[in-house]
């Protein structure tokens, strides 16, 4: 029983870290309204990966797997959407191309 609680606690901690890892990037992009430093390819692959993990969790009927990956999917999709929307649309005056 105690070992199962430890394993579950480890899983919850890992899921929380994974989900929270996108928040600093999302806050930075929103605050600065600049996504030029965000890798488009990385976030496309990340969004696809979290979609597949959530689908895998659905097949296993594993709600923790589904839930944590859906939250991570939403956060990474928001960053990807910001990248697509902001990339090249707003430039700071000092960032003009010569």
Protein architecture, described:
The protein is mainly α and 98 residues long. Helix 2 packs parallel to helix 4 (63-86) and helix 3 (40-60) runs antiparallel to helix 4 (63-86). It has four helices and no strands. Helices cover 76% and strands 0% of the residues. The protein is elongated. The longest helix has 24 residues, at 63-86.
List the topology elements.
Blueprint: H1 2-20, H2 23-32, H3 40-60, H4 63-86
Helix pairs in contact: 1-4, 2-4, 3-4
Indicate the mean pLDDT: 90
- In DSSP terms, counting alpha (H) and pi (I) runs of 4 or more, how many helices? 4
Please describe the biggest sheet, giving its number of strands, its sense, and whether it closes into a barrel.
none
Low-confidence stretches: none
Percentage beta strand: under 5%
Compute the number of strand runs.
0
Element order: H for helix, E for strand: HHHH
List keywords for this structure.
98 residues, mainly alpha, elongated
What does this entry show, briefly?
By secondary structure, the protein is mainly alpha-helical. The protein has 4 helices and no strands.
